[in-house]
């Protein structure tokens, strides 16, 4: 029986949140190289992220030297919401004048709540019109290796973060200084 957040790569999508059986039933439509390349422009990514399912073309592929921008899987929240959460949890106060100290405090609190090693859950800035939005995450399109025996733990972690921060996990375009207009694939 597949877990409800079984992590695998199907023919078109990297999936979290659906079972293999559900994914097989849906069978995504095949895309032409031209259609795929339209989705590999920065404009398209900005306009369509976050994704519930990460399209396969956003996975790096060393064999064809394809290095798309980083996408993070996690729950987004504004700085104000995170500061309020930190105060409600008692993990931050004005007496701790650390710059953005509540962001680290929230990450440490989530690691403790999820019983994870320090630094497992971290906040990431995302490419968003709202510069005060961050994502708490433990997975990216460049770090997909997740041991099968840890799938249940991953599911619990995501559910806990969703409950704690009041959001739904999705794939967010990460902020990067290496942005270019497009990441088109050319097959020879």
Describe the structure concisely.
By secondary structure, the chain is an alpha+beta fold. The protein has a four-stranded antiparallel beta sheet with strand order 5-6-4-7. A three-stranded antiparallel beta sheet has the order 1-2-3, with no helix packed on it. The relative contact order is 0.21.
Structure description:
- By secondary structure, the chain is an alpha+beta fold.
- It has one domain (8-173).
- It is built from 6 helices and 7 strands, in the order E-E-H-H-H-E-E-H-H-E-E-H-E.
- The strands form 2 sheets. A 4-stranded antiparallel sheet has the order 5-6-4-7. A 3-stranded antiparallel sheet has the order 1-2-3, with no helix packed on it.
- A hairpin with a 3-residue loop joins strand 1 and strand 2 (13-15).
- 28% of the residues are buried.
Quick tags:
single chain; 3-stranded antiparallel sheet
The share of residues in helices is 25-40%
State the end-to-end distance: 40 Å
The helix-strand sequence is EEHHHEEHHEEHE
Q: Order the strands across the largest sheet as they lie in space.
A: 5-6-4-7
- What can be said about the biggest beta sheet? 4 strands, antiparallel
